[in-house]
Specification:
Blueprint lengths: L1 H5 L3 H11 L1 H17 L4 H7 L8 H20 L9 H20 L1 H20 L7 H17 L6 H29 L1
């Protein structure tokens, strides 16, 4: 029952996450992309196996199906059917990366948090063999990988958890500062 509530109105959850915690929004959207891929872009199956079980009105279920269809269409248009992420989502990754570089220069609190994660980021970048050089993308991938491992019931080694915890700290601080910046821009 709690799982059903947690997926209640995906589009509203996505919008709330985008406003309140941009890192959670990015990870949420990665999860949505993977769900659509898992159902091979078949929104009728998503309706039957996912949305049908939402404890909401038929109207809200239809709104959710439309949202999944829109995301699936965007994925097809951007040719990310098998892998990759929506450009609209990756735009936020780039904004966080820019904020990361800005804060390293001026925010000693962030610099301290980043310094705790830096060796782990370098290690994960090395393991990625140069395919990922965006430090924030590495942090997001690490946290998302933890989510996937937990969903599959996999044990996560202690040293990996240490890395991911530092990634989470970086992303939490960046999300907080991102939200502050957005609020200032809106005033």
């Amino acid at each position: 029952m709690q799982l059903r509530r947690s997926v209640l109105l995906k589009m509203k959850i996505a919008n709330q996450k985008k406003q309140n915690n941009i890192s959670e929004y990015i990870i949420f959207m990665y999860q949505t992309e993977d769900l659509i891929r898992a159902f091979e872009f078949n929104t009728q199956d998503i309706r039957a196996y996912v949305v049908k079980h939402f404890p909401v009105s038929e109207e809200e279920k239809e709104a959710n199906i439309k949202w999944y269809k829109d995301i699936a269409q965007q994925m097809k248009e951007e040719a990310i059917v098998e892998k990759g992420h929506l450009s609209s989502v990756q735009k936020y990754v780039q904004e966080l990366a820019q904020l990361h570089w800005d804060l390293i220069k001026i925010d000693p609190n962030y610099r301290q948090i980043y310094d705790q994660a830096k060796l782990h980021i370098i290690q994960h970048a090395t393991e990625a063999k140069g395919q990922i050089n965006n430090e924030i993308q590495i942090c997001i991938n690490g946290v998302y990988g933890l989510l996937l491992a937990r969903l599959k019931g996999r044990e996560v080694p202690a040293d990996t958890m240490k890395s991911i915890n530092t990634f989470g700290d970086v992303l939490s601080y960046l999300s907080y500062k991102y939200r502050q910046r957005q609020q200032l821009n809106n005033n």
